[in-house]
Design a protein that fits this description.
The chain has 421 residues and is mainly α. Helix content is 58%, strand content 4%. It has a 6-stranded parallel β-sheet with strand order 1-2-3-4-5-6, with no helix packed on it. Helix 3 packs parallel to helix 4, helix 4 crosses helix 16 and helix 14 packs across helix 17. The chain is globular.
């Protein structure tokens, strides 16, 4: 039956209790190996455990394969791994990364310099995920012994990136790329590329390759997994219920002559601006009003702010927009852990058309030029790895939304290159 979500939370609570008591006695729990495979932990259980892992900081092996964990849970675990720098083995096989989870994990991999085994097999990493993971391991991890990216719908571009990433890994003993979408020609090409870098001997069998797919992977990336759809539907139902109750409360307050302060305060006005793009609302706010807003804002709010200020180009001074963005991104990223920057990037890439997302409308040409100018200015607040990942997508991916802002895109690329030196 497995632990399930409730069992996972109870284990997390017990571990935390043990850690706190042992720390109080001067001998804190130094957990090295955590194993909970096939336990149906899902996002909630994984997130509860991740919070404990952040405090323990001594993990060397984590085995949490086949637990129904998808991108939110993977992001939580990535944040926890960033606090456990002695990690040697990470086995998350048969969960569901997608590109969002892959990017979160790629963000933390470079600082885990003692990694020996990475098992992300059957995690729906796909080609884009394989590329960012390859970039993450390329310059580090000379101790890497095993890399499993099997059954991940990876096409040839992802396989080529992996070859480049492992070519100098002298301790690598096993590379598993079976069950992907390379096709017969791709399988042969992979073998040739590995032979050229003297790594063919580490390649596992490719006997279960799924063959090339004709469908556009970007479109598939834009789809939500079934489990996430169900989860989102539940959240939407809860949100609708909350909004209904809130509207009843507001009507009652109005009937009694009571004004809801949040709606009229700076934070309420900013939220309303993000929904309506009302320049009049924006003009009624002071730059310092955004200081309080950013403390309580989500990563999505910050990305919305970047795009909505871009849409106001010509109706407010550019310097005012830059000042607002500066203070918001500086405050949000200044003392944040790696997961915040990763989430910002996860939200930004679809809005730039670098990862297809059917739900987001692209700004018009003039607006995109302004947005890229503002983005160039605030990337100095991004961590180095986030800038490198953004640069990679800008250089390697085509986006219809960016074609008419080619000059601004090139300026952004140049700025990112300069910051990476």
């Amino acid at each position: 039956m497995g632990l399930g979500i409730i069992g996972g939370k109870k284990v997390a609570s017990a571990l935390l209790n043990c850690y706190e008591k042992s720390r109080a006695r001067g001998r804190p729990l130094a957990l090295k190996v955590f194993q909970a495979g096939r336990n149906r932990l899902e996002n909630e259980g994984a997130t509860a455990l991740a919070e404990v892992f952040k405090q323990i900081k001594t993990l060397e092996e984590v085995h949490m394969y086949q637990n129904g964990i998808n991108a939110p849970g993977i992001r939580a675990l990535a944040g926890a791994f960033a606090e456990n720098l002695k990690l040697k083995v990470v086995n998350l096989k048969d969960n569901t990364f997608t590109v969002q989870g892959s990017m979160a994990m790629a963000k933390v991999i470079p600082i885990l310099k003692e990694l020996e085994v990475i098992n992300f097999g059957e995690c729906l990493v796909r080609t884009q995920g394989a590329i960012v993971i390859a970039e993450a391991i390329a310059d580090f991890h000379n101790s890497l012994k095993e890399l499993d990216l099997s059954y991940n719908e990876i096409k040839m571009a992802g396989a080529e990136a992996i070859v480049q990433a492992i070519k100098n890994k002298n301790n690598l003993k096993k590379l598993d790329m079976n069950g992907n979408n390379l096709g017969d020609g791709g399988c042969e090409k992979l073998k040739i590329l590995l032979q050229e870098v003297d790594k063919l001997k580490v390649l596992d069998s490719l006997s279960d390759d799924e063959g090339e797919e004709d469908e556009d992977e970007d479109y598939v990336e834009g789809e939500e997994e079934l489990g996430e759809e169900e989860e989102e539907e539940e959240e939407e139902d809860e949100e609708d219920e909350y909004q209904y109750e809130e509207s009843e409360d507001q009507e009652e307050h109005a009937a009694n002559g009571v004004v809801h302060e949040a709606a009229d305060g700076p934070e309420g006005k900013i939220q309303q601006f993000l929904k309506t793009n009302s320049v009049n609302l924006l003009k009624s706010l002071q730059e310092e009003d955004f200081s309080t807003f950013v403390q309580n804002s989500s990563e999505e709010n910050l990305i919305d702010l970047l795009f909505e200020l871009g849409r106001c180009h010509g109706q407010m001074s550019q310097q005012q927009a830059l000042n607002i963005l500066d203070q918001c991104y500086h405050r949000k990223l200044g003392a944040a852990d790696a997961s915040v920057a990763a989430e910002l990037l996860n939200l930004l890439l679809p809005r730039l058309g670098l990862i297809k997302d059917e739900k987001k409308m692209q700004p018009d040409d003039r607006q995109m030029a302004s947005i890229l100018c503002y983005l160039k200015h605030i990337t100095r607040h991004f961590p180095s790895d986030t800038r490198k990942t953004l640069l990679f997508f800008l250089e390697q991916r085509e986006s219809a939304a960016l074609r008419s802002a080619e000059a601004e895109k090139n300026d952004l690329i140049a700025a990112l290159q300069d910051l990476s030196i």
